[in-house]
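Input chain follows. Return structure tokens only.
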Amino acid sequence: MIPSPMELLRSHLSKVRIPEPTNRIYKQECCISFDTPRSEGGLYVDLFSFLAFGKDYVGWNYVKTGNPVYLHIQQRRKPVPEDRPLKKPTLLAIGMEGGFDNQELEYEETHDIVILPDYVTLPFPSVELPEKVRLAVDSILIAEGAERKGQLASWTSEKKKVSAYAMDLQQINNGVVIPPSGWKCSKCDKTDNLWLNLTDGMILCGRRNWDGSGGNNHAIEHYKETNYPLAVKLGTITADLEGADVFSYPEDDGVEDPLLAQHLAFFGIDFSSLQKTEMTTAERELDQNINFDWNRIQESGQEVEPLFGPGYTGLVNLGNSCYMASTMQVVFSTRSFISRYYEKQSLQMAFEMAPADPTLDLNMQLTKLAYGLLSGKYSFLAQEMDEVGNCKTTTSSAKQEGIPPRMFKTVIAANHPEFSSMRQQDALEFFQHLLDQVERANAEKPEFEPSRSFKFIVEERLQCPSGKVAYNKRTDNILSLNIPLHEAMNKDQLEVFHKMKHERKLEGKEIANDEIVRPRVPLEACLASFSAPEEVHGFYSTALNAKTTAIKTAGLATFPDYLVLHMRKFVMEEGWVPKKLDVYIDVPDIIDITHMRSRGLQPGEELLPETVSSSEKMEPTHVAASEDIVTKLSGMGFNYLHCQKAAINTSNAGIEEAMNWLLSHMNDPDIDDPISDDSKTVELMSIDETSVETLISFGFQEEVARKALKASGGSIEKATDWIFSHPEVSSSVDTDATSSGTQAGDPGVPDGSGTYKLMALISHIGTSTQCGHYVAHVYKDGRWVIFNDSKVGASVNPPKDMGYLYFFERIDN
């Protein structure tokens, strides 16, 4: 006898769970594709794992897990009546009641309960459904989706600090009891954006926004009158108290209140029964940032033809994520990544190999991203509405929605404090982080590891006055190049421009943008500067048993499949102030770097002895705090012990350096520990991570950078000198300290000819790598293509002379 649908559902109730507040619920995007409730077939949410699947993939999950019960969510576009009247705006705003109608498409959402494998369907809502199913579905529908939660967690750039006012907060027993709903500002008629003062129980509206929305400033005015410090936003309080929005007025920031449950109970609030009805401050910031139109930054004045189809899919900007989008568009234009994550691995294969939660698996999410970008499934014309609500598609305004790489960003940025935030990042640093994570993920099968196509071996040759030499080798994936401005091709024009600029300055006049002349430096000169002989002062020669000046040259022992050139446009001026060079690089489409190949130890050369004098071994430097620095700092009100530590850990470099160290280490757990003899030893001191990163950006390895900073008291300048005068330390962490071969046979490093063609570039607009905007240009199918977040088009004038990162593909003979 065939059971009825209801009987079948009841037999599977053990496979239905009611989600807890801490469970991650996916209901906006498939975990192995970019399908959404608006896709054909909708989305299926597993009522046991709370993972979501598109219609083509939910069967895979059933086979893998045996979970049969799903909530089917389908969103269909609502038809727009032809006689829909245009509303006359009464407010100078967009997307607000009374403002301009932005004619967004409207969707109708439907729900069903589906039982696999036969897709038996029961309608929802229905009173006939088992209570457990109804509670589970209701909880899923009202919960914040994990996709959205992940964005918000990233957008809150730093973990909220515990308020200094929370533990000893005084609450006034004035008989106020807060009802569970129906709130209104005590001083106006506002019923949203309301804040409960945790001292006296007053409900008041929030701050007024620049566009007139928000509140009427009554909450902050109340603080100025009473100095009652903490308020919580009503509508953000749920059973998950960590999501509540608590603001400290004296600290002027969102904070954590560990006693929030107690403070709420004082006014009769049972938080376990409340549901979320308001956006938190982080949510508002996120929405405002996502709505920013990044597409204004494009090829100036050019009509870009939009492109669609396989390999032409845009990436939605998640809020300052253009550094990631531009990098991934280039990476998935390389043969190695296309082969590894698209051609040789199916979505189903990746899903079957993935752990229980595929959203946290890098292999799965890279494969998902590859299929999203390369299949063409999501590269189609976005529907727009005209003035009367009809769909319109014109060539000039045609664009695609793109795919949002939220799950990929969550995985690749896991445990990384910067990439997991919503702040802008350096595309170079992200690219190197990506290659590192991909290499680790493929450690068990290095032959399939795609990041190896970027690897090459740099060989440095050091020759001391004795005539003997040392060879150091290191593996790298970026060739970082200085820009020799003195090699500019347009020196005459520059001289005339600077003369005119000086004259205009004396006259008090400005230079027009079209009058600016920038240095134009050939790429050949940048490559030559990498290989040019360089003096290394203070080099300890084991042949002479003394410090001397050595000559260093560098070359490549192997040539990678893909050569990535990093142009050092960001340099340090006096005082370690970063500055961006306003310069053009003349980059040809074809380059030949065969002359840069290093041949290792040559006939007739003699290696330096490997023995290092014991007097040259790195000894810890004992530093006593400068009394002058300590006195000046303590005179500013700082703790005397803290001032001593600041002086010691900056090697008495100066009052400014000590203050910077102090301000960045005030919250260290050991800041109040007494200074012992050991703590005065720089060998054991804590190294400033910013200094380590600065040295790494100069091309030094992390281990070498840390050793140098310890040996030089934390001074970057002294550490740089120490590295050049102690090449034996660099050698100890390199692939091979002294070698007579080129290591071309290294199985982890490819090699081939030195002829390359330009296949992509990432350009940057802005004053710093941590701000501005990144755009990628990729040579595909015989033409240049611009990838500007979700915008993909045929490039009219690719900015080849403005690149920050250049990607060259080797031309095999």
